[in-house]
Amino acid sequence: xxxxxAAIKQRVLVLDGAMGxxxxxxxxxxxxxxxxxxxxxxxxxxxVHREYADAGADIIVTNSFGGSRPKLAHYGLEDKxxxxxxxxxxxxxxxxxxxxxVAASIGPTGRFLRPVGDADFDDMVEVFGEQVRAFAEAGADxxxxxxxxxxxxxxxxxxxxxxxSDLPIMALMTFENEGRSVLGxxxxxxxxxxxxxxxxxxxxxxxxxxEGIYEMLARMRSVCSTPLIAQPNAGLPQLIDGQTVxxxxxxxxxxxxxxxxxxxxxxxxxxxxxxxxxxxxMREALQGTEQDWTPPARRCLxxxxxxxxxxxxxxxxxxxxxxINPTGRKAYAQELRExxxxxxxxxxxxxxxxxxxxxxxxxxAPGVDEPAALERAVLAVEGVAQVPLVLDSSDPAALERAxxxxxxxxxxxxxxxxxxxxxxxxxxxxxxxxxxxALALDGSGIPETAEERLAVARxxxxxxxxxxxxxxxxxVDCLTLTVSAEQKRAMETIxxxxxVRDELGLPTALGVSNISFGLPCRPVLSSVFFAMALxxxxxxxxxxxxxxRMMDAYLAAMVLLGKDVRAESYIxxxxxxxxxxxxxxxxxxxxxxxxRL
Amino acid sequence: xxxxxAAIKQRVLVLDGAMGxxxxxxxxxxxxxxxxxxxxxxxxxxxVHREYADAGADIIVTNSFGGSRPKLAHYGLEDKxxxxxxxxxxxxxxxxxxxxxVAASIGPTGRFLRPVGDADFDDMVEVFGEQVRAFAEAGADxxxxxxxxxxxxxxxxxxxxxxxSDLPIMALMTFENEGRSVLGxxxxxxxxxxxxxxxxxxxxxxxxxxEGIYEMLARMRSVCSTPLIAQPNAGLPQLIDGQTVxxxxxxxxxxxxxxxxxxxxxxxxxxxxxxxxxxxxMREALQGTEQDWTPPARRCLxxxxxxxxxxxxxxxxxxxxxxINPTGRKAYAQELRExxxxxxxxxxxxxxxxxxxxxxxxxxAPGVDEPAALERAVLAVEGVAQVPLVLDSSDPAALERAxxxxxxxxxxxxxxxxxxxxxxxxxxxxxxxxxxxALALDGSGIPETAEERLAVARxxxxxxxxxxxxxxxxxVDCLTLTVSAEQKRAMETIxxxxxVRDELGLPTALGVSNISFGLPCRPVLSSVFFAMALxxxxxxxxxxxxxxRMMDAYLAAMVLLGKDVRAESYIxxxxxxxxxxxxxxxxxxxxxxxxRL
Lengths: 597, 597
Ligand SMILES: [Zn+2]
Ligand SMILES: [Zn+2]
Ligand SMILES: [Zn+2]
Fold this sequence. Notes:
The structure is a homodimer.
Chain A: H1 4-10, E1 13-14, H2 20-25, H3 37-40, H4 42-55, E2 59-61, H5 69-73, H6 81-96, E3 101-106, H7 121-138, E4 142-148, H8 151-164, E5 169-173, H9 187-196, E6 201-205, H10 210-221, E7 228-231, E8 237-240, E9 243-246, H11 250-253, H12 257-262, E10 265-268, H13 276-286, E11 300-303, E12 308-311, E13 318-324, H14 330-337, H15 342-354, E14 358-361, H16 370-384, E15 389-392, H17 396-405, E16 411-415, H18 419-432, E17 435-439, H19 450-466, E18 474-477, H20 490-504, E19 508-511, H21 522-535, E20 540-543, H22 548-560, H23 568-574
Parallel strand pairs in A: 1-10, 2-3, 3-4, 4-5, 5-6, 6-7, 7-10, 13-14, 13-20, 14-15, 15-16, 16-17, 17-18, 18-19, 19-20
Antiparallel strand pairs in A: 8-9, 11-12
Helix pairs in contact in A: 4-6, 4-13, 6-7, 7-8, 9-10, 15-16, 16-17, 17-18, 19-20, 21-22
Bound molecules: zinc ion (ZN) (3 copies).
């Protein structure tokens, strides 16, 4: 069997069409279990596969969409999970032969992970793992996960795949007309989360016709670099005489082929209402088409359940709210010990309202069970805020607990150049699809010069690549030292920012306010340092977004750096602030910020 | 006759000692005119010169210290000015022969320039010019100007020298025990002003003994790169039995020889109370001494009557107060038309109190006689403020009027790359010892890119060198454009700052606040741009020092850039400002500047 990954580099593959409707037409009763037919009516299943193969499909999808233990349990088939799924592969292979690919299908379990439902992440992984092991044993070429509505469940499925096989993965979410999944996930958020998990092909199926599917994929393409898969329904469903029907003709399905190819769709198939005739039309539409495609460069993007934030590149510097951190905050530390989350929820909301694009979450304090606290904090923040998270801990156990419940692609804060840190943190980032902040220091402390910090950053980068991370997912913290203690090193930090950008091409981060520790009127000093850091290309600033001075510096710098085009954000923020005009007479008051009050 | 300038490069020359006391001992009556003896007792004068020549002096100073028209007029000798001064050179030459230098002496006139006295600058130049012409005709090798108490008068004398001869010039001020001239000029201010005027050797004579003279010269050396001259009295004067006596022995006079040599003293002689025996001791002390000396690099320094300010190099960015400018200030424009100076005086004081290191003075407005107004403004500012001036005009006539009455080394704002500007401004800067701001634009407008601006700056620099200016005295204005109109060019300006520093090594200037024109809450945007400019090495900022935000940015940046060592100025400025500590609870107010109120 040819290599699937190599194949989609060379050409666009055609996937098959709907299975459920075909089985209904061939005897599946309403309320019956389609997957049971793998055992009870294997010929029927195999015949459907064969029809698609004959129609020109390169990939035959197994009849195992509802083959998970919870789904099969509805039919009392929980002791047949392995058999049904393994058999599904065999039937598909019988039709596919050696020259077509068999994609083993996984669908949602119908259960929801905490906090939406009561399913536990590890249990969910094991549920999917059961199917995955059967697929792998039976010789599937790849796994395709279809029609997922919940990115959290899909994350668990992908992680199960990675744990129990090394098969290529296609992961498909289903979006509504409004451009979000029913649980609020945007195509961008899905794509960013899935690419980070190492999914081979990302896409969308069901829910929409070919035009809607194209729109979702174009949005995915704007944030990811993987090949895409399009699996539209045969038009939008229409209810006619109590029957749901899909009216798109085979020719309707191929109207968008060229646009799909242009954005890097490498697998095209059909979902509800599609038939072998539709698949044949797709196959034919590909004849003679130019099928070259160069993947776009990867970028550093983070995601929540609903949205994405870019770090570095042409994006404006991202603001990471720093206030969910017990250091110096006794009330919060006390809440952590009491397992309460009121502070966390208030600060999450307040910081986002003040302009935070991401939220740092730190639960490390004496007397606190950090793994439990960090998991609780992540769930609390996700309950009130829609921004990607920065998990701030050096404890792998705490990080793993939190990574399981985090909805999107998070940023781990941080890994250092120390061996123990590299070994503890990088595999977690790889497994759970996270980016990492790389602290430019190691066991010998904070390097004196920018060049030495660059060297540490380079070593961490190399270790991260070794661990399977993408270089774009390494954000280098260039280290802010307290200027009152280390005056000469302040500009060394600024120089490190430029060096890391110019020499490594990596995004950068900085905890800005530490610069002014021990000095009076800290916001003045911190905000000026912030302006210099932004000028030096800082990609992500860990600051207090509720500090007005810091946000002043940010908004002004974005105008100067051309990120706030036509100063629209700046004008919106300050138009109603009555700053005195340039002083016109000697008795004028100073034109400082006091005039704003 | 050997070249004086070449000679002091190779070795330390010995100048002769006192003339007046020697003549008194040889028949000059109390209240008599020493210079008249050039005509009435030439043998006596020549004999004194010969004694010094025999004692080992390399330079014989003419008996013409009081030879100016106002001084001779006291004795009814105003019609013998030319004869007395020319004769002074002949007598010195008779004693000096061809192998020693004849230095023609000029002393103060006893009159003071406006506004201290009633003398007019041009008249003063002509008074000195009369002596200079006589010296040049009679074959003096150089001119030495001694015992000046008023830097303004000495400026006029040097300018007269330059106008009527091309002889090398030595210029010496006399300082009091407190380290200032009687009119308040510090050795640093004197040295900076004199070096800019093209004086060959700068120094001090009279007033102090050798230790005090060394201290004054060491302070001069800290700001200038010319050779120095030391001409101490024979100790401090003591009044014994109604007689002023100088008690330092010849051996006392040479105690500091090595220190003097170390700081680049290239001419050593004596003033009051020194005799041929003192000169002989100096000559002997030089035998076998190491006489190598490498001049220090020139720097860009400006001066007022009392102090100096550095632009560029390791110095902190200089603040140029921008508020004495009628653009957008109707009340000031009206005062200019009425020839009043109340606004100017108030703003000069207020800006210096707010932290200005220099003051920009602009008098260009409709209906204003700019040359008269600029002269009046300079006198008004100098009456209340002790900082160097920035003369802000493109009118050479106005500039020349102002340059005549300005006390120190001013900065001319500005010359552009246009031919007319170069031709009109650069010769004035050379003649009056000024530095210039070079606007990086020419007839084709403001260049788009940093590289183009650099090219214009380079052309202006070359023209300035051609006109005889030192490269250090060219400060490049890198041009602030309004970000609301030219968003992409904001960072081009910052880039220009770095390029000019790195490629040309010249100091830079910027009118900062123009960046925010047309946008709300201008101080926020301007101060952030200012922080970036400071990071890029800005040497002089033309700003409103009464804008609290701008000074916040300045003071903070100086800490970060290591210019405010141990943050002493920052702490002094903000220690009493009660900024809230880093917020400790979610109900905290933002920690912005509002907390300072
Ligand atoms: Zn469907
Ligand atoms: Zn389907
Ligand atoms: Zn003297």
